[in-house]
Every structure is written in C-alpha cells, then in structure tokens.
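User: Structure please.
Assistant: Input sequence and predicted structure:
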Amino acid sequence: MHGPASSGWLLVALCAAAGAYCLLRMRSGAGEQRSAAGGEALMGFGMAAMAVPAAVYTPPSWAWPLYAAVFGAAAVRALWAARAGAHHLHHLVGAAAMVYMSVVMAGSPAHLHGRGGSGIPLLTGALLLYFAGYVLLTGVRLVPVAAVAGSGARGGSGGWGDRPELARACRLSMGIAMVAMLLTL
C-alpha cells in the first residue's frame, strides 16, 4: 500500500474526500442510507490512513493489528446487516479486504511495503477481480442516473447527503482506490 509518494497522496485525498462525503450522507433522513454511509465513511478514512506514503509516516507495529481489529468488527457488523440487503455483502468484502491488507502489512518488513511480493497471490487476485468488477459495474450504473425533481431537499443536509449519483461516485472512487491499494500489496 505504500507505493510512490505522489500516488499515495492522491489515494489519501480521494479516500479522505469520500469518507468526508459519507459523513455528510449520514445526516440523511433515511435510516438505511445512514447505516450504509457510516460503514463507507469508516472505509474511506481507513483507506486514507493506510495509503499515507511510508516515506512520510511509517505506522508503528501495533497499528496494523489495530486496523485488523477495527475492520474485523466492521466485517462482523456488515455480516449481521447483510440479512437485510445485498449491499452489505459488498461492505463485508471491503472490510474483509481491509483486514487482509492489514494482516499482510503487519507481517511484511517496512522496507518491502509497496514493492509487492507479500500476501497470498490467489486471494489478492480474487479481491482484485472482485473490486475491478465492482468498479466497472458501478461506473456503468453511474452513467444513466437522471436527476429526480425535488430529490435534493430532504434530510437537513442541504441536499448533498441525498444525491444518489454522488453516493455512487463515492463508492466508485473507493472501489478504484481499493484496486490501487491491492495492486501495490
């Protein structure tokens, strides 16, 4: 995950912006959207923290198990919530991927971060295929979104929290970031 500094900072900015937007979406009037946005905000900020270039900041050895524990708890919550909807299965896969990356980073020496060669190639490849497919599918779904008259004034968030096309763009950007992070694993 700690590859070249310029791409690392771009990932940090992208994921932090997505996490911030997801926090804004948590102000929505719809309970299901608030729940999904909370998980996505956690993913966005967690991915931003993991993408900080190693040349700037190398996390202490205890940080990776902490990441694994936090995202393990998020995976359990997503598994519980998956009873109600299929979108939570994506949150489960995302949280499990974050746990996997945390465990791999905890087990690899600091000088190898971002140089590949760590992790289980078959599992990394399966996660890459999943997220690449997710990115393509989400991108296709984003194209035909038409604005619905009067859909932006709910929830007290000035309309930004209830825009479906922005939520999809946020998910798309986090999916792209996940592919980039898995490629550097």
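The first helix runs from residue 5 to 25.
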